[in-house]
Specification:
147 residues; mainly beta; Elongation Factor Tu (Ef-tu), domain 3; 7-stranded antiparallel beta sheet; two-stranded antiparallel sheet; 9 strands; elongated; disordered C terminus
């Protein structure tokens, strides 16, 4: 079964792939399109906001008594400041590559929220969930020449 994958698109970790241990149960993708009402005039389109994606991932090492912290650290690495870029890298989220698969999403990690659920007697985390939120971001090298 294909796993959800998050790939770094740039920076010192370009091409590195984070693969979900378990696929998310659901993924939310939304886009806000702002309109402004100007008195009796028709609504005025103000421009599209970047899309957003969010999902929850499960990390489980209970059966093997194995810490899930290294996998969580790799996930957090996607939201850390890259020394060559001086900002976190853009990433691509993909799940499957068959016809009709979920469209890929290019963006930046906006937030990672971890909930530790189960611990070994010595405090090692054995199970956790992480909520990942991303914001759509275009490739800055593909900006239009406005000159």
């Amino acid at each position: 079964m294909a796993k959800l994958r998050i790939t770094a698109l740039e920076g010192e970790h370009q091409g590195e792939v984070f693969e979900a241990q378990f696929n998310p149960k659901e993924i939310e993708v939304d886009r806000t399109i702002p309109w402004q009402h100007q008195g009796p005039a028709p609504l005025q389109f103000l421009g599209a906001e970047p899309g957003r994606m969010s999902f929850e991932l499960l990390f489980d090492g209970v059966e093997q008594s194995k810490s899930v912290q290294p996998k969580l650290d790799r996930l957090h690495g996607l939201s850390s400041v890259d020394e060559t870029l001086h900002r976190p890298p853009r990433v691509k989220v993909a799940w499957g590559n068959a016809a009709g698969a979920m469209p890929t999403f290019d963006g930046v990690v906006e937030a990672v929220s971890v909930r530790y659920l189960t611990f070994a007697e010595n405090g090692v985390p054995l199970r956790a969930t992480a909520t990942v939120k991303l914001k759509e971001a275009a490739d800055p090298s593909r900006t239009l020449d406005r000159g």
